[in-house]
Amino acid sequence: MGEEKIRVVVVGAKGKMGRETVKAVMNDPELDFVGAVDRTLDGVQVSEVLGFDCGEAAFYNDLGKALIDTNATVMIDFTNPSVVKGNLDKAIELGVRPVVGTTGMTPEEIANWDRECREREIGGLIAPNFAIGAILMMRFSAMAAKYMPHVEIIEMHHDQKLDAPSGTALKTLELIAKEREAMGQGHPNEHETITGSRGGDYEGMRVHSVRLPGYVAHQQVIFGGLGQTLTLRHDSINRESFMPGVVMSCKMVMNYTGLVYGLENLLD
Ligand code: NAD
């Protein structure tokens, strides 16, 4: 037989991203979907819950047990900001490579997990956005900011999203900040009649988070210059948009050591 498949456990498999992820893992010949984690479904077959063929994999309510029982190589996490941190700790402790799409961590926390991954000699990835179009939007934004440093971001997501601004917006701001000196934007004497009208402030750049039913994940990066504006916009119109990036990441984390933050760092 050929090379061994990568054994994948999906945490948050019953959620919107988790369900799509299980489908994508099932459809990839190099990946083996071996288990799922959800707080309430211990012992239930995943196929029964998700309504499509998920092989023999079952749900666990305990991540540690799931990773050990299934002899997992990779843990994919699409849960929420309050539980992902414990999940990352557990996976790294057990030497299982984390591929994490959940957002809402601090740079200090990420640096800590990077150190732990290096100690265990495993690779891992936290990606605020797995969609290739979003990665390109971030890259183009950093390029544009060099020449058009006045910039604001409007990001739009569904109204079940817990963190604001989105991880993608934060990552975009960080990338732009590398190309642009921090500075105030707007009128020096501007004041808000309604608090928050000018949005969040990151080194003078403003970020606005829209949360409405109907949206999936969207972002506009608007640059303003003398007599002109430039708008870069990306839309994930459904969750399939993230799956090529998720599947690719499961394979790439096998080939390096340490925790990478941002899928763009794995692309040339
Ligand atoms: P969702 O609410 O539909 O799914 C989250 C799932 O996690 C739920 O099924 C919930 O039961 C489960 N869960 C909660 N606590 C758990 C625990 N302790 N153990 C196991 N499972 C647990 O949310 P979603 O829309 O699927 O998004 C999940 C996360 O992914 C969010 O943080 C979101 O911002 C992020 N996201 C990332 C990307 C990306 O490309 N990186 C894209 C979309 C969404």
What spatial order of strands do you see in the largest sheet? 3-2-1-4-5-6-12
CATH fold name of the largest domain, please? Rossmann fold
SSE pattern: EHEHEHEHEHEHEHEEEEHE
Low-confidence stretches: none
From the coordinates shown, what is the CATH architecture of the largest domain? Answer: 3-Layer(aba) Sandwich
State the end-to-end CA separation.
32 Å
Number of strands: 12
Give the helix level as a range of percent.
Answer: 25-40%
Q: Could you give me the name of the CATH homologous superfamily of the largest domain?
A: NAD(P)-binding Rossmann-like Domain
List the ligand species: nicotinamide-adenine-dinucleotide
Provide a count of the helices. Answer: 8
Q: What is the domain total for the residues? A: 2
CATH class annotation of the largest domain? Alpha Beta
Which geometry do the CA atoms define? Answer: elongated
Rg, please? 20 Å
Mean pLDDT: 96
Largest sheet: 7 strands, parallel
Strand fraction:
25-35%
Helix-and-strand structural type: alpha/beta
Explain what this protein looks like in three dimensions.
(S)-2,3,4,5-tetrahydrodipicolinate binds at residues 158, 167-168. Catalyzes the conversion of 4-hydroxy-tetrahydrodipicolinate (HTPA) to tetrahydrodipicolinate. It is found in: Cytoplasm. Its EC number is 1.17.1.8. It is a single chain. By secondary structure, this protein is α/β, with parallel strands linked by helices. The chain folds into two domains: 6-126 and 240-266, Rossmann fold (3-Layer(aba) Sandwich), CATH 3.40.50.720; 132-237, 2-Layer Sandwich (Dihydrodipicolinate Reductase, domain 2). Helices cover 31% and strands 25% of the residues. It has eight helices and twelve strands. The protein has helices at 16-26, 46-50, 63-69, 84-93, 107-120, 132-147, 167-177, 243-252, and strands spanning 6-11, 31-37, 59-60, 74-77, 97-100, 123-126, 150-157, 200-202, 205-211, 217-225, 228-236, 258-261. Helix 4 runs parallel beside helix 5 and helix 6 packs parallel to helix 7. The longest helix is centred in the middle third of the chain and has 16 residues, at 132-147. The mean pLDDT is 96. Bound molecules: nicotinamide-adenine-dinucleotide.
